[in-house]
Amino acid sequence: MNTKRIVLVLKVLLWLGALAPTVWMGAGAIFGWLGANPIEKLEHVSGMTALIALLATLVVTPVRRLTGWNPVIQLRRPMGLFAFYYVVLHFGVWMGLDLSLELSWITEDIAKRPYITVGFTGFLLLIPLALTSTKRSIRRLGKRWVKLHRLVYVAPALGVVHYYWLVKADVRIPLLMAAIYTALMLLRVPGWLKGRARRASVVERSLAKPVEGREPGNAMAVGAID
Amino acid sequence: MIIRVRKPSDLSSSDITPEHVYVNRRMFLKQAAASAAGLALAPAALGALERSGPIRAPQQVDYARLKSELGEPVNSYKDITTYNNFYEFGTSKSDPAKNSGDFHPHPWTVAVEGHVKNPGSYHLEDFLAPYKLEDRVYRMRCVEAWSIVVPWRGFPLADLVKKAEPTGDAKFVEFTTVMRPSEMPGQRTGVLQWPYVEGLRLDEATNPLTLLVTGVYGKDLPNQNGAPLRLITPWKYGFKGIKSIVKIRFVEGMPHNTWWVTNPREYGFYANVNPHVDHPRWSQARERRLGELRRRETLMFNGYQDEVASMYAGMDLRKWF
User: Fold this and answer.
1) Would you identify the CATH topology of the domain B75-312?
2) Considering only CB atoms, which chain A residues are within 8 Å of B83?
3) Which of A168, A172, A173 to mutate to test the interface with B (most CBs of B within 10 A)?
4) Residue of A nearest to B280 (CA)
5) Partners of residue B120 on adjacent β-strands
6) Each residue of B8-41: pLDDT tens digit?
7) To the nearest whole angstrom, how far is the Cα of B253 from the nearest Cα of chain A?
8) What is the ipTM of this complex?
9) Rounded Cα–Cα distance for residues A153 and A136 (Å)
10) Measuring CA to CA, how many Å separate A208 from each of A169, A202, A203?
């Protein structure tokens, strides 16, 4: 199989996996298997899926680094967008079904409940990332795109804290997620150190002789968001 | 009002929904279904046929059609038995129903001890023998801001207290859940301190609302609901309703209830339902009644103010949450 075909297969698998929770929730709502508190169930499933998807998005770059197989990077954007989709769904179920679109309840919860404040902040941070996920934005924003998209490291952390703060006593799964997040961040440290050294040497060389034939925006965009 | 604690001899024929009403109701429903206008009328008419409030008439009761004293319909048996907080069997709501299959509530022994004239250890059957079981429809409000309406079967804890004859030193009653890690997978984890402990002040224990419960929907308690014996205090958050009780101890000091031990900032001893005192992490002003879409306002003392408020007169309920 050539690379294109492998990527296509991976993308198909990604779409199937990513849409499965939506299908499950939709079917559950129709066939009534969401249990005695279906709204809570929808909140849990969409929230858990969002968090898993956010963490999964952070897996892509370390996998590329460790395997050296660059095409895997093509999965990163769809994964990030799926994560955003589930965050939106989670937020929508909470706002629309759980709180019946009552503005005073919603604002009160966001202001007064720290776990909701944190979760809502994470949601807000993801909005500009989703809006600037197009190739055009990458080209247009250049280095600023790279900086902006570093928020993708913040959002999952807020998601994990949101989850940790809302459970009553059983913090095992939130702690597991915190551990996974920490590991994924630590895996990036060597890459960042190397990148910094490389950029330093590029600067040195470019002082001597300008580098030609590069598209700085794209190269940075793919390379620097580790 | 809701408390109508009566002896079976007080039972009047109007307490039992006679069979012919059921028959008529079915006919009525059929007729109602025949026209859209009839359908719209059906709930109101059914409501009129129902008697409300606690009832005792185990034989002929259609439990699914019972209502609370405020006219709220009971939740389905399925909802009541598949959506449970019983951490001994796991921390998600569906865990207790799934993981309690290996639990054996028979044979069962209950100990009554502490500052009482009549301590003892009893087989469950002997323990229950002196008491008259009755059905009562109560709201249950969980500290997590959801609620459910349940037709319990049990007897007033006050009856037991009377038989046990507490001495002057008894100020509180402490309850303990069975410790069986082999049958209760949650007890093999450190999620809470085991065994689960709860407590009531003596006047709370003898309040006519307080029940020792053995059944739901006219049947014995399923394992996931706290078989074979649990506590129900409907004006308090659900976690006060300790399940699978093996020990009832009359003590002088305030018992260290499990959730208070776990997180004293968030869970108190009293745990009275109070819409004005929020849990530090969520609002207690509203609740989701299972089966309803829109959240409803939470009532002070879960709507049992008339029966219990006097016990807390002069107490700062913000401090003693």
Assistant:
1) Sulfite Oxidase; Chain A, domain 2 (3.90.420)
2) 35-37
3) A168
4) A113
5) B112
6) 444 344 444 433 333 333 433 343 344 333 333 3
7) 26
8) 0.80
9) 22
10) 61, 10, 9
